[in-house]
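Aim 2, interim progress: modelling of the glutamine-bound target.
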Amino acid sequence: MTYAEVYESGVKELERAEIEEARLDARLLLEYVCHTTRQDLLAHGERVVTEEEGRQYDGLIVKRALHIPLQYLTGVQEFMGLEFQVNENVLVPRQDTEVLVEEAVRFLHDGMRILDMCTGSGCILLSLLHYSNDCEGVGADISESALAVAKQNAERIGVSEAVRFVRSDLFSDVEGKFDMIISNPPYIRTDVIPTLMEEVREHEPMEALDGGDDGLFFYRRIIEEAPAYLNGGGQLFFEIGYDQADAVMILLASAGFKDIALVQDFAGNDRVVSGTWY
Ligand code: GLN
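Predicted structure of the complex, ligand included:
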């Protein structure tokens, strides 16, 4: 079969499975299998797909049709202009989270120590280290298998000298003081989880999503404990859900944080809340 034919059959399968971006995903998977680019489909649609490539492609289409996220099939996701490795043990890095990183990076200076609480793939911490000079990071996560991914990403991004990862139930095994604590904790309300896309609900790690009955479980715990781990003038940065700004800002204020700030994402949704500990 030709490249164009294989692609069209992939599109059809994904459309049948009601995959939202069937054309895009069918193309990206074909490019992944054949080591090609978008250009090849446009200019070399008659290129022959080998039997092995065809078999591999069909296998991936079957998996994508089961709503397994594309990134778990290709094993990578771009974030902050860097390529991160992902698998089913970590949340796929979201574009929303780039707003968190972009906001935090403005406050980094040489020599700062950063703690990323619930680091997952490490995408937040490793981007911060990549886009700053001479900072040092600790990534904490309860999931050993997530930390394995984060460690590989540290190598891949080339910042492993500057980072340590620790398996920790929130702060249980974290030591030392930090100038910045940053976190994208699980924040989806338990009763909202059944309404999430099948890709997220059935395939992404639930322990990275479920924020408890009111979605605020992890914010409460982190805000309560963070002061003991912050140097004077240290900042706490959170990604939040679109409807959580008031609640999280009140939690920060009640705990004694100052200079509380809110930043919106490109869609105009509340997305980042921060506060300073003096
Ligand atoms: N923003 C993610 C989502 O909508 C949730 C991330 C989180 O819970 N920290 O799937």
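Residues 94, 96, 184-188, 200, 209 surround glutamine (CB under 6 Å). The beta strands are 76-79, 82-85, 113-117, 136-141, 163-167, 178-183, 230-239, 258-264, 270-277.
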